[in-house]
Design goal:
Elements lengths: L1 E4 L7 E4 L8 E4 L2 E4 L9 E3 L8 E4 L2 E6 L8 E2 L4 E2 L2 H16 L1
Parallel strand pairs: 1-3
Antiparallel strand pairs: 1-2, 2-5, 3-4, 5-8, 6-7, 7-9
Length: about 100
């Protein structure tokens, strides 16, 4: 069985700890998923379904928005994850400016 690492309870993805082939069982501290595709070492596997438009969390923070529906066990990467860096930065800037007001 392959292993994956989930850092925060809010995370809906985990990082695979070794190259994973489609159909491999992946254990994430007792949570099990079956890889829906080949997933390279260090890439993300979905721990549960994620609706299109929903935030994807890794290390307890949002890292992107699902650009397509994601199923449990799917490889989560640029093909199904929208970059939200600008959105996050704008939100952080707004909070920072409000603290100084």
């Amino acid at each position: 069985m392959k292993k994956a690492i989930r850092v925060d309870k809010a995370d809906n993805v985990a990082v695979v700890a070794q190259d994973t082939k489609k159909g491999d069982a992946v254990d994430c501290f007792g949570f099990e998923a079956v890889a829906g595709a080949d997933i390279p070492l260090g890439h993300k596997i979905a721990l549960g379904p994620v609706e299109k438009g929903a935030l994807v969390f890794k290390f307890g923070v949002p890292i992107g928005r699902a650009s397509a529906p994601i199923r449990t066990g799917d490889h989560v990467h640029v093909h199904n994850l929208e970059d939200i860096t600008e959105e996050l930065c704008n939100g952080y800037e707004k909070k920072f400016r409000e603290m100084g007001a």
